[in-house]
Amino acid sequence: MQRRTLLQALLLTALPVPALTRAATAPQVDVYKSAGCGCCEGWIEHLQTSGFTVKAQDVGDTGAYRKKFGIPEALGSCHTALVQGYALEGHVPAADIKRLLAEKPKARGLAVPSMPMGSPGMEGPRKDPYDVFLVKADGSTSVYRHYPQS
């Protein structure tokens, strides 16, 4: 029975869905960013291309949102976001956000500290290795996914 359900789910994800339906069910990501930040705009575009609906708001202090959402300051970056109750800090790839929303761990969210070259929104001639951290409910972290240098 589980196998059949899994096959049905896989089949449904492969079928084309009208754009209007997709937009209505796409998770909304609320982004709090600095005005005029090009890499934040690049990350937002990455999310939209990956099927997320984004509502961006320019704020004077992204650190206030980081604190509000329980992300340690040491994990800070140039923007903070919220999706379905999870905090997102920095240039977190859309694939990792989708995994987070599917797995629903008991956690505060995901963080990519700083602004690593090669992460979404930070594309360029160089691609540095970086980690996406899972920020657990108690504030501790573990590596959620490692992206190697290429």
UniProtKB/TrEMBL annotation:
Domain of life, per lineage: Bacteria
Record carries keyword Signal: yes
Record-linked InterPro entries: DUF411
Pfam families linked: DUF411
Leader peptide range in chain numbering: 1-19
UniProt entry keywords in alphabetical sequence: Signal
Protein name per the record: DUF411 domain-containing protein
